[in-house]
């Protein structure tokens, strides 16, 4: 029986453990902080739970338009919200532990180091455990990047892992970094009723996202009272008695009550023994892998954020599953990033799948694009939804759908039709021909597809 040792219990690690066990391997999983990893305990699950409350309050804010008068001081009890966030995260971690137990995975609560490609050591509360193994999967994730001039104190200068200890809503949250993490937290605290300043080093928010989508989000942020500072790079953050001061590289300062650092992630490679074993890192310090998750050392695989491939829970899980299928001789489909669906949980959300506008603009492919604002959608009007659009990219000729963007409330759900189209290489006509409910926001997905119909 093949023995595989998995380091890290996030989606990259635990999904791999479940697949490996199903394929007949003996599986040991070493995790130092808690099953579910950062995904469940500090990153994805907690932030989306916080955003659920923020979304509710944002919706309440539109009640007058729909004819409902609510008291002006409807607000969240942050201590209760954060307690709920942490309880839900722990419950999900416990569920994962149960699934792994049922699948006969041996779990070790400890910190792993590689001795060689065939030996892993786990340092636990009871001492060291030496594990001889046939293969290793590294799924150690990443941690928040901080700067020596902006040291988190867990009280007012915070990483995204620390915000759930707050007992009160920050009066004025300064979010540094306008990538997906920064934009989501800026949106969340704005929705919860805090004053928010978003410090963006680039000329626009969400530099990695569809430019039309980012423009909608920036316009909504500004309309809802957020201060968005473009071309503004944080140099330092310091405590000022009852608040914080962020100093920018051009000397300007911003004062607030709290500061959240969302300036990227660092892969968890330190102390793993990778250099000694010969596992190659890329120029950004991530573990180099191929499309079936192999590292430079035979028998050692890697999955998830530690590889820096596309830092999403879904991609981490897929890389982990692919690694185990490859190791254990099951059919392998190499990772295909061209079909990944993802979502930015701002209000409204931005969901994307397949080719992006930037890839379309830079490629030689002949692509037709249709973009339809939601404002003309009957359901959107009924629900008081004013912002958002549906965009579809299709190959000229056959009309095969190769990508799409939806900006809307719950875009994460609406994108599935386009994700299915991209995954199954459906044509715009097939998407347009499928019935949609009247009235519904998904009617705009079909209508955008219809606009790409060409006379045969
Ligand atoms: C704020 C935020 C929100 C996000 N929201 C989403 C989202 O909505 N959707 C989405 O798809 N993605 C989201 N992401 C990205 C997603 O969280 C990551 O892509 C995902 O966590 C990667 O999973 P992983 O298994 O690689 O690592 P992790 O989930 O980080 O797990 C790695 C685990 O390895 C453990 N570990 C590390 N070193 C060792 C060692 N030496 N020994 C033992 N254990 C070790 C760590 O303790 C950790 O538990 C978000 C990220 C952030 C920062
Ligand atoms: N909903 C989701 O799926 C979700 C949510 C959060 C994060 N993630 C993933 O995690 C990964 C990391 O995203 P992220 O937003 O944490 O990091 P990021 O690296 O994408 O963004 C960090 C931003 O901070 C800026 N920055 C760095 N130093 C700065 C400074 N001194 N002053 C001002 N700005 C500064 C950078 O220019 C960059 O735009 C992404 O791949 C993302 O997709 C996904």
From TrEMBL:
The protein's required cofactors: FAD
Residues binding FAD, per UniProt: 48
Domain FAD/NAD(P)-binding per the UniProt entry, residue ranges: 3-320
Ligand binding (NAD(+)): 177-184, 264, 305
GO molecular function per UniProt: flavin adenine dinucleotide binding; NAD(P)H dehydrogenase (quinone) activity
Top-rank taxon: Bacteria
Record keyword Zinc-finger present: no
Pyridine nucleotide-disulphide oxidoreductase dimerisation domain mapped to chain residues: 341-448
InterPro entries: FAD/NAD-bd_sf, FAD/NAD-binding_dom, FAD/NAD-linked_Rdtase_dimer_sf, Pyr_nuc-diS_OxRdtase, Pyr_nucl-diS_OxRdtase_dimer
Keyword annotations from UniProtKB, A to Z: FAD, Flavoprotein, NAD, Nucleotide-binding, Oxidoreductase
A Pfam family hit: Pyr_redox_dim
Cofactor annotation remark: Binds 1 FAD per subunit.
Family: Belongs to the class-I pyridine nucleotide-disulfide oxidoreductase family.
PANTHER family per the UniProt record, alphabetical: MERCURIC REDUCTASE, NAD(P)H DEHYDROGENASE (QUINONE)
Protein's name according to its UniProt entry: NAD(P)H-quinone dehydrogenase
Species assigned in the record: Aeromicrobium ginsengisoli
């Amino acid at each position: 029986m093949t023995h595989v040792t998995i380091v890290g219990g996030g989606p990259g690690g635990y999904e791999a453990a479940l697949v490996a066990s199903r394929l007949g391997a003996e599986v040991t999983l070493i995790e130092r902080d808690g099953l579910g990893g950062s995904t469940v305990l500090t990153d994805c699950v907690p932030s989306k739970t916080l955003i659920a409350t923020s979304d509710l309050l944002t919706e309440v804010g539109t009640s007058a338009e729909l004819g409902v008068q609510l008291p002006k001081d409807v607000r969240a009890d942050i201590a209760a919200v954060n307690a709920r966030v942490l309880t839900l995260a722990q419950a999900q971690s416990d569920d994962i532990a149960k699934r792994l137990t049922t699948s006969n995975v041996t779990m070790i609560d400890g910190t792993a180091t590689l001795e060689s490609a065939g030996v892993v050591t786990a340092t636990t509360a009871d001492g060291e455990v030496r594990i001889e193994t046939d293969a290793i999967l590294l799924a150690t994730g990443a941690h928040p990047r901080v700067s020596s001039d902006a040291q988190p104190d867990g009280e007012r200068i915070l990483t995204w892992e620390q915000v759930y200890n707050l007992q009160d809503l920050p009066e004025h949250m300064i979010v540094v970094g306008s990538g997906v993490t920064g934009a989501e937290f800026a949106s969340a605290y704005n929705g919860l009723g805090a004053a928010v300043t978003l410090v963006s080093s680039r000329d626009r928010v969400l530099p990695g996202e569809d430019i039309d989508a980012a423009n909608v989000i920036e316009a909504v942020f500004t309309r809802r009272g957020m201060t968005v500072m473009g071309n503004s790079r944080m140099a330092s953050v310091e405590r000022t008695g009852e608040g914080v001061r962020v100093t920018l590289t051009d000397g300007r300062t911003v004062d607030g009550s709290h500061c959240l650092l969302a300036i990227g992630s660092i892969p968890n490679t330190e102390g793993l023994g990778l250099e000694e074993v010969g596992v190659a890192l890329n120029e950004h310090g991530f573990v180099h892998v191929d499309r079936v998750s192999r590292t430079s050392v035979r028998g050692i695989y890697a999955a998830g954020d530690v590889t820096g491939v596309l830092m999403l829970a879904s991609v981490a899980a897929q890389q982990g599953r692919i690694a185990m299928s490859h190791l254990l001789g099951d059919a392998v489909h190499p990772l295909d990033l061209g079909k990944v669906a993802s979502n930015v949980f701002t209000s409204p959300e931005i969901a994307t799948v397949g080719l992006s506008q930037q890839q379309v603009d830079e490629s030689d492919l002949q692509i037709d694009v249709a973009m339809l604002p939601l404002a003309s959608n009957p359901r959107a009007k009924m629900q008081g939804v004013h912002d958002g659009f549906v965009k579809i990219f299709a190959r000229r000729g056959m009309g095969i759908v190769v990508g799409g963007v939806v900006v809307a409330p719950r875009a994460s759900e609406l994108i599935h039709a386009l994700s299915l189209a991209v995954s199954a290489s459906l044509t715009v006509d097939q998407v347009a021909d499928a019935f949609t409910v009247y009235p519904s926001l998904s009617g705009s997905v079909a209508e955008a597809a219809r606009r790409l119909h060409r006379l045969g």
